[in-house]
Write a structure and sequence with these properties.
two-stranded antiparallel ribbon; 619 residues
């Protein structure tokens, strides 16, 4: 008996190359939006880079990539109807891989022909001169086309959630992709590995009914126990006294529920941060064939790692050891974690540095462990806050200095540095923490000299906004204004936008510039940017500087300082020792020399905000 096609279900393991080459997919109506967040892209890139680097050796031939370790990306469900292939489950991953391929294609454009991997056909195919992308969805075509052709796109007001997220996640990829994989001698190996060794299970149904059945089965049934649940089972099994076991069970449920109020996976990131910060002593060397160590094992299966290490690293041997430890240490560190999350999610002046690194920090897998590392159960609330702020201050200083030097700080590129720092500051008292962070800050190789060449471009707008918010709120605070970082970065109501001091009018500046591209480069300098409220920015952004300067007098301190009138009757500003040290000067006109003066001012402000001298104990 011949089986009807609509009754068939096929499942095959395939590669990205085989899945995407010259293919077109539509998206089922009920899951049309692309909703991945930065954390999802971050985890994907970290996983891909880590798995690839386990096998990569610069002495290999490219043909040896076929023997490298595979990476399982997950299943994707398709429905085939009348020759059209519709994605039922998995468009988030396909879209994200497409964005990564677009970025990799830009990276290899200037490579020699032998080092370029032909991946265009995995992204789009052309017919009658028109590019059609692998996910054939009308609303995203214009953004994908811009990203593919020029590597940047600015969302329009009427763009939908998908387009805005596509743009944001592409920008994330440009920031997070490791520098060590961008080298011409390495990238072809990585691209070969990505398109051939990353495994996907493609499940194809030939009827909508079967497709939806598969989708429901994958998402609603047979949920596996998580690492947290398996850890709980093991811990309770080691406590022999029934009343103590019941007590720890209640403590466990209460605290895990508290973590789940933030996100369903917060318990996982909590245990990873806790165990890495206090007990991890090893990390996998960056050599081919190296085995995973504490850091990686905690990240993948922390319940197994705990089971193997609780005697030696935790000193938990008896039933009472387990009882006392999880009665005291577990709830303490859960409360510490929720304290950090609350400070990151809502600006709190007592933990302002922790809020800053929510917006411009490092990989969560490193950042959380760093924040945990010096804190001890015996610390007072005041001492905990000081430790958290000091560590967060170092993290932000590190990331800002790398950003102005156009250096990335993906996990793969900085994890050894940060892991060593975790061990250095582990269980430090405040005095030693201060000494260690001050010394580490001095040793950051990237300097503030780069300010003179730092400019806004299509991919770094998020950082520039953060930098301007930090400088603007810092100056406001000095002269006693009631504003904070949150006032500018995420206010309730009207938002703040980046304003170019020079209008985008080359004709206004022909006296100083012969070429428009030179003018554009200077116009984008950090010294030529301020923050203005949404609407105000648009209303006079194209005016000449001499006309705009009067409006600046009504705005924040940093904008006001351009206008000579601000220097006449403003004692809080004029008499401030910090302001005097920063050497502000008014700018009745704004020429190239004024731009240079302003860039130098930005440097002095940054050196103040992120000075090593800020690491000091104040009683």
């Amino acid at each position: 008996m011949i089986q009807k096609l609509q009754n068939k279900i096929e499942a095959t393991d395939t590669s990205i190359n085989a899945l995407l080459k010259d293919q077109k997919f539509t998206i089922d109506y009920f899951q049309r939006e692309y909703r991945w967040q930065e954390k999802h892209i971050r985890l994907l890139i970290e996983d891909l880079a880590s798995t690839f680097l386990k096998s990569y050796d610069s002495n290999h031939k490219r043909s040896e990539v076929s023997n490298y370790q595979n990476y399982y990306l997950g299943p994707i469900v398709f429905s085939v109807n009348e020759g059209k292939k519709s994605i039922i489950d998995g468009q988030q991953r396909i879209t994200s891989i497409t964005l990564l391929l677009i970025y990799l294609n830009h990276l290899q454009k200037n490579y020699s022909e032998g080092n370029r991997v032909p991946i265009n056909e995995l992204i789009f195919s052309a017919k009658y001169g028109e590019k059609s992308f692998n996910i054939d969805e009308e609303s995203r075509k214009h953004s994908l086309k811009a990203l593919f052709e020029i590597g940047e796109y600015t969302p329009l007001e009427d763009d939908d959630e998908t387009v805005k997220n596509i743009t944001a996640r592409y920008n994330d990829i440009t920031q997070l992709f490791p520098d060590e994989l961008c080298k011409e001698e390495t990238l072809p190996f990585f691209i070969d590995w990505l398109i051939e060794n990353v495994v996907i299970v493609a499940i194809t149904a030939y009827s909508d009914e079967n497709a939806y059945t598969i989708f429901e089965t994958m998402n609603d049934r047979g949920l596996n126990l998580t690492s947290t649940e398996m850890l709980k089972g093991y811990i309770l099994s080691r406590i022999t006294e029934k009343s103590q076991r019941n007590e720890i069970n209640d403590i466990w449920k209460t605290n895990i529920q508290k973590l789940h109020e933030y996100d369903e996976n917060t318990d996982q990131t909590f245990f990873q941060a806790w165990f890495r910060s206090k007990y991890a002593v090893s990390i996998r060397p960056g050599k081919v064939g190296s085995e995973d160590q504490d850091f990686e094992l905690i990240g993948s299966r922390f319940h197994n790692w705990f089971k193997d290490n609780h005697k030696e690293k935790f000193n938990l041997k008896s039933s009472n050891d387990f009882y006392q430890y999880f009665k005291t240490e577990f709830p303490f560190f859960v409360n510490l974690y929720t304290k950090i999350l609350d400070a990151q999610n809502k600006f709190d002046s007592s933990l302002e540095n922790v809020n800053f690194i929510k917006h411009w920090g490092i990989a969560e897998s490193l950042q959380n462990a760093l924040l945990f590392a010096p804190v001890m159960n015996s610390d007072s609330t005041e001492l905990i806050d000081k430790k958290l702020n000091f560590v967060a201050q170092f993290i932000e200083s590190y990331t800002v200095r790398r950003a102005i030097n156009y250096r990335k700080f993906s996990q793969a590129s900085i994890k050894y540095t940060m892991f060593n720092l975790i061990k250095l500051i582990r269980n430090n008292d405040l005095e030693n923490l201060t000494i260690n962070l001050k010394e580490e800050s001095k040793n950051i190789p990237e300097t503030w000299d780069a300010i003179s060449n730092f400019r806004i471009h299509g991919m770094n707008g998020v950082f520039v906004k953060h930098l301007l918010c930090r400088m603007t709120s810092y100056l406001d605070k000095i002269i006693g204004k009631d504003s904070t970082y949150a006032t500018y970065h995420n206010p309730i109501g009207k938002q703040f936008e980046i304003e170019h001091i020079w209008a985008n009018k080359f004709e206004y500046h022909r006296d100083e510039f012969e070429q428009e591209n030179e003018f554009s480069e200077w116009r984008n300098s950090i010294g030529g940017l301020i923050l203005l409220p949404q609407g105000t920015n648009q209303s006079f952004s194209s005016d000449k500087y001499e006309d705009k300067i009067e409006h600046y007098l009504k705005e924040n301190t940093y904008a006001q300082s351009l206008n000579p009138a601000f220097y006449e009757k403003n004692p809080n500003f004029l008499n401030s020792p910090i302001i005097q040290q920063l050497e502000f000067t008014p700018h009745p006109e704004f020429k190239k020399k004024d731009m240079i003066d302003r860039q130098n001012l930005v440097r002095r402000i940054c050196e103040n905000i992120w000075s090593e001298n800020n690491f000091q104990i104040i009683n």
